[in-house]
Specification:
Elements: H1 2-8, H2 29-56, H3 60-65, H4 70-95, H5 105-118, H6 125-135, H7 145-167, H8 181-216, H9 228-242
Helix pairs in contact: 1-5, 2-4, 4-5, 7-8
Length: about 240
């Protein structure tokens, strides 16, 4: 039962046998690991700098409201995703296998979902998402990830109203029901529709990237030296299946 559920949510067993989460079609694994680590360090550094600056320059009120904003919460997610993905990629680059492949199935599902969430956001975060979408070898996210994304958005809406109840403000003005319940419902449905559209666009882009890079250009990826032969055989099998 666990194996079936994990497969539905993007973690079939054995998990990631062709190392799609830790390789790129153009970058060597060690370079991919370094870039991911740099992004993580940047995200953590900028986050802590902002919090420290606000706290030491009379802007403590901004810090109290910090975790009520979706963009900031997303940036924390990016920082942790790239930290863990860099560690997994370093491990693969050095040994030919990643810790991720040995984790319990539910943690593998969590990582797969984590990847989907960071490729479905906005603003500067989109730059990091584009890197993961276009330069890695990941497969399109399974449809079962979409309800999880919707659930995350619903939980954030709940957090927005908790912030209003405890701190007296709405993180986004359109969430204020006093401006009209119909208008609020329209915004919520619009956000839901946008999430579905973004998920679909990302899915299609990743599918096209795999079809073009692997299926047509025959570029199967850069692998760790200790696993080159085995990984290339797996890639050849996948290439035949794609055709």
């Amino acid at each position: 039962m666990v194996r079936q559920l994990s497969a539905i949510f993007g973690a079939p067993q054995p998990f990631d046998p062709n190392h799609r989460y830790t390789t790129s079609w153009i970058l060597p694994p060690i370079v991919l690991a370094v870039i991911r680590l740099i992004i993580s360090i940047y995200a953590f550094t900028s986050t802590f700098f902002i919090l420290g600056w606000n706290g030491t320059h009379g802007r403590q009120e901004l810090n109290r409201r910090y975790f009520s904003f979706f963009t900031y919460l997303t940036f924390w997610g990016i920082a942790f995703y790239f930290l863990f993905s860099s560690l997994h990629t370093f491990r693969y680059a050095l040994t030919g296998s990643s810790w991720l492949q040995k984790w319990p199935a539910m943690l593998q599902v969590a990582h797969a979902v984590f990847y989907t969430t960071i490729t479905s956001q906005h603003a500067l975060n989109a730059v990091f998402a584009i890197f993961e979408i276009f330069l890695t070898r990941t497969a399109p996210p399974p449809p079962a990830h979409l309800p999880i994304l919707v659930l995350i958005l619903a939980l954030y809406l709940s957090l927005a109203y908790i912030s209003h109840a405890t701190q007296g403000f709405y993180s986004y003005s359109f969430l204020d029901p006093s401006r009209g319940s119909g208008r609020l419902a329209g915004y919520i449905l619009g956000i839901l529709a946008a999430a579905c559209v973004i998920f679909g666009v990302v899915w299609v882009i990743i599918w096209i990237r795999r079809w073009l890079i692997e299926g047509k250009l025959d570029m199967h990826g850069k692998f760790a030296r200790s696993r080159n032969n085995e990984d290339e055989e797996m890639s050849e099998i996948e290439r035949v299946n794609m055709k």
